Each structure stands twice: as C-alpha cells, then as structure tokens.
Amino acid sequence: MQVNQQAGLDLPQRIVVYQNDSEEVFVGYNSTVYLANRHTLGDVATLPTIATALKNLSENTAVADVTEQPSDVITDYNVTTVLSDQTFDATYADIISVIDGNENLTIVAELDHQANAANVELELLPTKVIIFGNPNLGTMLMQKSQTSALDLPQKILVYENADGEVKIAFNNPELFVSRHGVINSDATLEIVLAALQGLADNASEE
Predict the structure, then answer these.
(1) pLDDT in tens, 91-132
(2) CA dist list (Å): 107 to 2, 39, 129, 198
(3) Which of 39, 67, 108, 172 fits as disulfide partner to 131, beta carbons 3.0 to 4.6 Å?
(4) Kindly report the CA angle at 32 between 28 and 33, in degrees rounded to 5?
(5) Distances (CA, A) of 164 to 18, 77, 88, 128, 129
(6) Tens of pLDDT along 44-84?
(7) Do the bridges between strand 166-171 and strand 79-84 make them parallel or antiparallel, or are there none, so unpaired?
(8) CA 142 centroid distance within chain
(9) What is the pairing mode between strands 127-133 and 106-112?
(10) Is the pTM of this model over 0.90?
C-alpha cells in the first residue's frame, strides 16, 4: 500500500473455502500476480513471502495440489475511482453515515490501514476501508459463482495521496461478470453499481 494505496481494496488477504454440488471442496485466494498487475505493484519485496504463505496455507488444508490460474488483468482492472472535494475525515464520515442510515446495508468491518501500519512502525498515508453489504444481493451473486465470495462483502476504500487528493475507490460490479463468470444477473449488478456510485458521489461533494 506504500506503493499504491488502492491495493487496500484487496488487503488484507482472504481465503475462500467452498463446496460445490458434487461435494468437491476448493480453496481459493487472490494470487500476488493478480495483486501486482491490478495495482501496479511491480516487484515489491514482500510479494514472494505473501505468495508462499498463501500457497502453504492452502496446501495444508486442501487434499489436492494448489493450482494457480494465470492472471493477465491490467492496471486498475474494474476499479472505479472518484475524486472527493471534501477532506479525508469528512469523506469517510459521510460514507459511514449513509450506510448506517440504509436499513438494507450492514457494515461488517472498518479497516484503518494507516493505524495498522503504525502498529508495526511503518508509515502509510490515510487509508481506510469500509466492508459492508446487503446479504440479499450478495447471496444471489454467490449462488451464480461461489468464487464471488473473494470479492464480497463489498468494499469502499477512502485514501489521501501524497498530493493531498482524497479519493474513493470501489470494485465495479462488472468484476463479477469478467472475473467470476456471473451471468444473467444484470439487474442485481445494476443495483449494486447504483449503490456504490451513489455512496461515492454523495461523499465526494461538499
């Protein structure tokens, strides 16, 4: 995240375990190649360590060998970014307020990446993530493709860069089509996009 704060959309790492209709059990995670390509991380020194840890965790729990799928995603793959006219704190507070005021949405967690970095004596510009969702919509996507759980619940990232710009970033729901193969769910994805875009637009205006 010191290289690109938008990597906070995919951090911390997550592992999904799921069983299909044939009772086959799978373990999945975002490869470091995916992270590096999506967020232009280059050859950050910690990537090999993360890759080894994820593979070891998966192999220790899985019966079969872990197979890593190739990742040819491009920079900012399905990341939507909105520039805020407000301060970092005001932008973040507005998003929290709107989510709290919507009975259909539930905040699952809030991550303060800057504070977490400080806990291990590292520096990071203001970077926070809100993890939230609507189980009625999210479940529909996972019913279509269980790997969708890697990108659910939804996340909104708020960060302030070195130029003092405050930005809001989120995963465009097209991600579920292009990455997870979710089909025939246009209406659901349109609702999700409208909600995410609405939250970002509202919080970006003074």
Answers:
(1) 999 999 999 999 999 999 999 999 999 999 999 999 999 999
(2) 26, 25, 11, 16
(3) 108
(4) 105
(5) 42, 24, 9, 15, 18
(6) 999 999 999 998 888 777 555 555 666 678 999 999 999 99
(7) antiparallel
(8) 16
(9) antiparallel
(10) yes
Arithmetic mean of pLDDT over the chain? 93
Could you tell me the two tokens for 96? 């929290």
Tokens of 151: 């990108």
DSSP string, the chain: --S-GGGGGG-S--EEEEE-TT--EEEEE--HHHHHHHHT-TT-TTHHHHHHHHHHHHHHH-SSPP-PPP--PPTTTTEEEEEESS-HHHHHHHHHHHHHT-TT-EEEEEEEHHHHHHHTT----SEEEEEEE-HHHHHHHHHH-GGGGGG-SEEEEEEE-TTS-EEEEEE-THHHHHTT---S-HHHHHHHHHHHHHHHHHHH--
Q: Which of 82, 92, 112 lies closest to 1 in space, CA to CA?
A: 112
Contact 42, 198 (CB under 8 A): no
Please tell me the distance from the alpha carbon of residue 97 to that of residue 111, in angstroms, as a whole number: 16
